Amino acid sequence: MSVSSVLETLADLVRINSVNPAYEGGHPEQEVARFLRGFFEGHGIECWEQPVLPERPNLIARVPGRNSGRRIVFEAHTDTVSAGGMDIEPFVPAIRDGRLYGRGSCDNKGGLAAMMHAIVAVASSAEPPPCEVWLAATVDEEHSFRGVSKLCEVLDAHAAVVAEPTSLRAVIASKGVLRWRIRTVGRAAHSSKPHLGVNAITAMSHLVLALEEENRRLSEFTHPLLGPATNNVGIIRGGRQINFVPDECSIEIDRRLIPGEEIPNVLARYQEVVEEAAKRFPGFQAEMEPPMLEDYPLETPPGAGVVEAAQRVLDRLAIDPEPVGVPYGSDASKFSRKGVPAIVLGPGSIDQAHAAVEFVDCGEVERAVEIYRGIMQSFE
Prior knowledge:
There is one protein chain. The chain is of the alpha+beta class. The protein contains 9 helices and 21 strands. It folds into 2 domains: 5-174 and 297-376, Aminopeptidase (3-Layer(aba) Sandwich); 176-294, 2-Layer Sandwich (Alpha-Beta Plaits), CATH 3.30.70.360. Helix content is 32%, strand content 27%. A 6-stranded mixed sheet has the order 1-2-6-3-7-20, sandwiched between helices. Strand 4 and strand 5 form a beta hairpin. The protein is elongated.
């Protein structure tokens, strides 16, 4: 099969190892920024780097619009998750059966490549877009959102379109995420005389069961597009040696938030759960540590201009225009918290993101170019 220019660009992006430096084998996103700069400068499009972290800049491209007082930003992240444990060569892109394989092909370089070609098409059009268009390629989405947070410090925009794998559906609601650690404290002793100690793992088991009870309570409250909030104990660590009574145990919790929940209130509720568990089980000692990650949910009104613009384009291309919600988070919520109406829309399925065999549908990448271009040329 012949390979379109956007798929060639996507293959070039996949060849660049941009695994987030927080993960094993990580690399800074600087090389992606260099590639993007060469791409945009080669097409005569103004672009610049925004420093975020050492060797980890955001890259921003700009196309002027007829109304210089309004701006829409198209955003995609340049980092990926770890390539460890993959069943395919992560940085050797391959096209088979209408799919392009490789780490980041789905999350999120397919969307980035489509945005790149869409903005080139708009820049080369005889008629400028209705308002100024930015393409922001940001760092660190896969760890702690520092790229988009830095962008939002200087951004003045009226709408945002964020590329994530949504199977080309317009997402207007997504869950937030809150991650933190709880530690139980015991007293060490020799395992032949456990009565002389306090077992921190046993104490933690009581708390884990209490958290499961809290999960059942959460299931009673649902969002129409997102369902209920959830919590998941993803990591547990405890004990020093098998013949010690463990004096410490810790868990790490991933709590997914639905719109309307405020992080201080959520943390206060879990403090109550800890205190209630302490009352029920004598000798229980536990402490909550400050959050490791905070990200609020996204909820954009269906009548927002960017939603309606996306719906018109999707409908014209015979793609289901009905807005949907997704359980995972993205950079979009950071725009929303700044007061910028945002949607999430991109090629690929979230089921292939982070997978051992990651791929993106080639046809969806090519259609995404049309969708992004249509929104760029119609949002006012």
